[in-house]
Specification:
The complex is a heterodimer of chains A (513) and B (157). Chain A has 513 residues and is mainly α. Chain A contains 22 helices and two strands. Chain A has one domain. In chain A, 73% of the residues lie in helices and 1% in strands. In chain A, helix 1 crosses helix 17, helix 2 runs antiparallel to helix 3 and helix 3 packs parallel to helix 15. The longest helix of chain A has 34 residues. The radius of gyration of chain A is 22 Å and the shape is globular. The two termini of chain A are 39 Å apart. Chain B is mainly alpha-helical and 157 residues long. Chain B folds into two domains: 64 residues; 79 residues, no CATH class. The relative contact order of chain B is 0.10. The chains are: A mainly alpha (513), B mainly alpha (157). The interface between A and B is large, with 60 and 67 residues. Chain B: This is Putative tricarboxylic transport membrane protein. Chain B: Keywords: Membrane, Transmembrane, Transmembrane helix. Chain B: InterPro entries: DUF1468. Chain B: It holds the Pfam family TctB. Chain B: It comes from Amphritea atlantica.
Chain lengths: 513, 157
């Protein structure tokens, strides 16, 4: 393991890779700050750039952007009460009231310290958890992989929120259907191309990711008329001091510690991710607080700000565990990174840390650097970076559209891809209006090909019988977890609804936490 | 009868699954493949069935609440349609008039559609931005950007 850490360290400290961390953090912070654009869009916008880099540098850049975007989202949550992404919605609960009390500087600093601690705890845990899990998963066979992919896909659906499970499952199936378009890798047969030469290679990952996450997100802001809203001018004189008193540090230190560990564990679960971690950590902290402190939550509580900030960064790191060790992404953003790795010809999974130790370890090490960059460089520069928020939307939106389109065009030099992007964007807009989540579709698309290969192998080995699903204990265990993950939440909802209809005395805590 | 977003979505996916399943039958198989446990149609058929079953489940369990109705009156569809048409035209323009000119025109049209009317602003942002990007791509990164076919036909290659 020590060898690996040194390999990673030597790759990560290469000047170019360090530059990628810095550039990634800055670009991520800026994109993350823009309301409507979150880490997924930020990482998607980076894909074309990473195509020209070697795998380690590319993934390091993406990881930096991911971190930066989560941090940038917190900044806009605190300063203008407009969360850049879902995982920083909770940050606004207490961050914005603090800014209104002329303590924006303190809130930003606390957010940065909490993010740093969360990210550091996450990176350390990843350092130990990932190789251990990877070693265990080396014994996995194709049946286990197939089961794992089922688990990954069902988990994303199960964690997608109340009343959204069926919609998320449908989107997963939709993603799997898109993955079947083009030439079948095993038989060579063309599927669903309808005679078009442009579809023989299938729908490209880059095109799908850019259309659904970059283009659609920007177009949605236009659709909702948000481009007309003038962003509040951030008054730098009202930022206040960035220093925390000793008492305040004492007050938030246990919260940050608890939420970091908690956030990491939630992040490791496939499908859970940073948003759920931040909501759960906020709820947990409020439940742990004394009755008097509880009243402060939502009105500018430091603990209420520290908890989600530590948890979302720790969870962002945690979501790399299933990606790097099992090849199963823990969130939409890591799903895009999985796609990028596959495009490099690297198969993430247990063999990653044996076959490509430089990629495996340098990503982990550079995550730590990413945290440092956010704390040392980004925090003092926040007053200046936030000035970019003032760029008028009518100028900014066409530029982001341009980057999304040319990002795809410059890889294929085929204008058919631009038309295809528009078609996918139109479909994605209607799906979003119908409240269908997009991340499960991308996950289904990315895992579709791998799943088909593993299923085919498993079926051929077992001579067409589905018995492989329950004959191997490990496969059975993973499939059972998938079933539990999928069935338990709706059942709990059902029980809760029944209790509620039985009597009004059953109080269900459904506050903003 | 209230038709909600879930009903529309469920119906859409049910139709998609039926369409997908129908066309899965057109996938060519290798001789003898039909006796194999796994072939090119296996996964498409399974997905069509799965999609159909989940769509039906969504249709049957959808809540009939008025607030879940699809409301489209607060959205600016006309502007989005114009932007998307602009993107398609940009795609065609890339082939005909080349990267640099197409980018400048795309940006000017985009700014204008979104409400920016100052001529100075339209030019001051789009031209330096497009030239800057063109310079990075063509000169620094050495990416070949084909000249527009129009110029090739007019002035020769």
């Amino acid at each position: 393991m020590l060898d690996g850490i040194f390999t990673g360290l030597s790759t990560a400290v290469m000047p170019f890779n360090l530059l990628m961390v810095v550039v990634g953090c800055f670009a991520g912070t800026f994109i993350g700050m823009l309301p409507g654009l979150g880490p997924i869009s930020a990482v998607a916008l980076m894909i074309p750039i990473t195509y020209g880099l070697d795998p380690s540098s590319g993934i390091i850049l993406m990881a930096g952007v991911y971190y930066g975007a989560v941090f940038g989202g917190s900044t806009s949550s605190i300063l203008i009460n407009a969360p850049g992404c879902a995982s920083t919605v909770v940050t606004a609960f207490d961050g914005y009231p603090l800014a209104q009390q002329n303590q924006a500087g303190k809130a930003l600093a606390l957010a940065a310290y909490s993010s740093f601690t969360g990210g550091t705890v996450g990176a350390l845990a990843l350092l130990f958890a990932a190789p251990a899990l990877a070693k265990v998963s080396l014994s996995f066979q194709s049946t286990d992989y197939f089961a794992l992919m089922i688990l990954g896909l069902t988990a994303v659906a199960a964690f997608s929120g109340k009343g959204q499970v069926l919609k998320a499952l449908l989107m997963t199936v939709f993603g799997l259907m898109i993955a079947t378009v083009g030439t079948d890798t095993t038989s060579g047969a063309t599927r669903f191309t309808f005679g078009s030469i442009d579809l023989i290679d299938g729908v490209s990952f880059l095109l799908l990711a850019m259309a659904t996450f970059a283009l659609t997100e920007v177009v949605m802001t236009v659709l909702k008329g948000e481009h007309r809203e003038e962003e509040e001018q951030v008054d730098m004189s009202k930022l206040g001091s960035m220093k925390l008193s000793r008492e305040e540090i004492k007050e938030v230190a246990p919260t940050i510690g608890r939420s970091s560990v908690f956030g990491f564990l939630v992040g490791v679960l496939p499908g859970a991710g940073a948003t759920i971690a931040s909501f759960l950590a906020y709820g947990l902290e409020r439940n742990l607080a004394s009755a008097k402190e509880k009243l402060k939550f939502g009105k500018g509580s430091l603990r209420g700000l520290a908890a989600p900030e530590s948890a979302n960064n720790a969870a962002s790191t945690g979501s790399f565990v299933p990606l790097l060790t099992l090849g199963i992404p823990g969130s939409g953003t890591t799903a895009i990174m999985l796609g990028a790795l596959i495009a490099y010809g690297i198969q993430p999974g247990p063999r990653l840390f044996l076959d490509h130790p430089d990629v495996f370890w340098s990503v982990i090490i550079s995550m730590y650097f990413g945290n440092l960059v956010l704390l040392i460089l980004n925090l003092p520069l926040i007053p200046y970076i936030s000035k970019l928020l003032v760029i008028p939307r009518p100028i900014l939106i066409p530029m982001i559209l341009f980057f999304s389109i040319t990002g795809v065009y410059l890889v294929s030099f085929n204008t058919f891809d631009i038309q295809m992007m528009v078609v996918i964007t139109v479909i994605a807009i209607f799906l979003k209006l119908l409240e269908f989540p997009m991340a499960p579709m991308l996950l289904g698309y990315i895992l579709g090909g791998l799943m088909e290969t593993n299923l085919s192998r498993a079926l051929v080995i077992s001579d067409g019988s589905l018995a492989f699903l329950w004959e191997r204990p490990l496969t059975l265990a993973i499939i059972s977890i998938a079933v539990i993950v999928l069935v338990v939440p709706p059942l709990l909802d059902l029980v809760r609804n029944r209790n509620r209809t039985r009597g009004p005395e059953v109080a269900v805590n459904e506050g903003e936490g | 009868m209230i038709i909600t977003k879930d009903h529309i979505g469920g119906m859409g996916f049910l139709l998609l699954s039926a369409f997908y399943g129908y066309y899965a039958g057109d996938i060519p198989l290798l001789p003898g493949d039909e006796f194999e446990p796994f072939h090119a149609r296996t996964v498409p058929y399974a997905l069509a069935i799965l999609g159909g079953v989940i769509s039906l489940a969504l249709l049957l369990t959808a809540e009939r609440k008025a607030e879940k109705r699809l409301r489209l009156n607060n959205y600016d569809f006309a502007l989005v349609a114009k932007l998307l048409v602009l993107i398609v035209i940009f795609g065609l323009a890339l082939e005909w008039i080349g990267f640099l000119l197409a980018t400048v025109l795309f940006l000017i049209a985009g700014f204008w559609l979104l409400g920016e009317r100052r001529t100075k602003m339209l030019l001051m942002v789009s031209v330096p931005f497009a030239v800057g990007i063109w310079f990075i791509l063509a000169k620094l990164l050495d990416i070949y950007l084909a000249p527009g076919q129009l110029f090739v036909q007019l002035f020769g290659g």
